[in-house]
Amino acid sequence: MDRLRDKVAIVTGAGSGIGRAVAVAFGREGAKVLVSDSRTDGGGEATVTAIQAEGGEALYVAADVSKEDDVIRLVRAAVDRFGRLDVMVNNAGVMRVGPVTELTEADFDLVTSVNQKGTFFGIKHAARAMMKTGGGSIINTSSIAADHGQHGGVVYAATKGAILSMTLTAASELAEYGIRVNAVQPGAISTGILAASGVRETPDRAARIEQGTPLGHRRGLPEEVAPLYVYLASDESGFVTGQKLAVDGGISADSHVI
Ligand SMILES: NC(=O)c1ccc[n+]([C@@H]2O[C@H](COP(=O)([O-])OP(=O)(O)OC[C@H]3O[C@@H](n4cnc5c(N)ncnc54)[C@H](O)[C@@H]3O)[C@@H](O)[C@H]2O)c1
C-alpha cells in the first residue's frame, strides 16, 4: 500500500466518478492528494473525507480547469502545501450529446474549453512545476471515443482525440525533463457524466452497452479504472510515456459489425 509513498498528486474532476476513485486509490497508496473540482455540491470535500478516513493526506481546492488562472492556482496550492508536484491527473470532463446537425456553438465551446483547453492548461502548468524537481507523471483522461466514431459525440469524441494528440506531443517534448505523459481511455463506466450532460438512460442504450462489452456484459466501475492511474503515477511505469491505455472490458477489441 505504498506504491506512491511521498508523491504529491493533483486530481482534477475528483469530486465524483473516476476522479474520486483515482484520488482515493492514490491516497491509499501513500500519495498526498490535492483533490480538485468545480462542483459546489460538496463532492470534492467528500473525496477528501474518504481519503482521510483511510489515514491518507488530502486537501480540497476548487478550480475550473477551463480557466488558466485557476489551474495556475491549483499547481501553486500543491507546491505550497506539499512542497512539490509529482503527478498531475487531468481528468475533469463534460459531455454534450446530440446529432451533428443539432449541437450548438455553446455546446462546442463548453466541451472544448473544459476537456481540451483544461487538459492543455493542466499539462502546461504541471510540467513547469515538475521541471523544477526533476520530473513527474502526467495522466490525461481521454476515452475510447477518441478512436471511433460515436453517435452523438461529434464534439466530445473530438476533444478526447485532441487529448490523445496533446499526450503524444507533450510526452515527446517533456521526456528530456523526466516528465512522462500518458492517456487513459475508459470505456463505458458507471458515473454521473451522462446524467450531468442531460442524456437519459434508455433500455436500448443500456442493452447496447451490455451487448458490446465482452467482459461481464456490464458497465465498468470507477474502481476498476483507478488501478491503471496508480500504475502510471508510480515508478513502476518509469519507462512508459506517450501511451494510450484502455480500460473498457473489451469494447474496443471488436468492430461490432463483422
Ligand atoms: N464515465 C465514462 O463512461 C467515461 C468514459 C470515457 C471517458 N470518461 C472521462 O472520464 C472523466 C471523468 O468523468 P466521469 O465519468 O467520472 O464523470 P463525472 O461527471 O462523475 O466526473 C467529472 C467531474 O469533472 C468535474 N468538472 C466538470 N467541469 C469542470 C471544470 N470546468 N473544472 C473542474 N472540474 C470540472 C465535474 O464536476 C465532475 O465531478 C471525464 O474526462 C470523462 O470524459 C468517462
Summarize this structure briefly.
This protein has helices at 17-28, 43-53, 68-82, 105-131, 156-174, 193-196, 203-212, 222-233; strands at residues 8-11, 32-37, 57-62, 87-90, 136-141, 179-186, 244-247. It is an alpha/beta fold. Nicotinamide-adenine-dinucleotide is lined by residues 12-13, 15-19, 37-39, 43, 64-66, 91-94, 114, 141, 143, 186, 188-189, 191-193, 196.
How do the helices and strands line up, and which of them pair or pack?
Blueprint (H helix, E strand, L loop, with lengths): L7 E4 L5 H12 L3 E6 L5 H11 L3 E6 L5 H15 L4 E4 L14 H27 L4 E6 L14 H19 L4 E8 L6 H4 L6 H10 L9 H12 L10 E4 L11
Parallel strand pairs: 1-2, 1-4, 2-3, 4-5, 5-6, 6-7
Helix pairs in contact: 1-2, 1-8, 3-4, 4-5
The chain binds nicotinamide-adenine-dinucleotide.
Molecular structure report:
With 258 residues, the protein is an alpha/beta fold. It has one domain (8-249): NAD(P)-binding Rossmann-like Domain (Rossmann fold, 3-Layer(aba) Sandwich), CATH 3.40.50.720. Helix content is 43%, strand content 15%. It is built from eight helices and seven strands, in the order βαβαβαβαβαβαααβ. It has a seven-stranded parallel sheet with strand order 3-2-1-4-5-6-7, with helices on both faces. Helix 1 (17-28) packs parallel to helix 2 and helix 4 packs parallel to helix 5. The structure holds nicotinamide-adenine-dinucleotide (NAD). Residues 12-13, 15-19, 37-39, 43, 64-66, 91-94, 114, 141, 143, 186, 188-189, 191-193, 196 line the site of nicotinamide-adenine-dinucleotide.
Key attributes of the depicted protein:
15% strand; 43% helix; seven-stranded parallel sheet; binds nicotinamide-adenine-dinucleotide; 258 residues; globular; alpha/beta; 8 helices; Rossmann fold; single chain
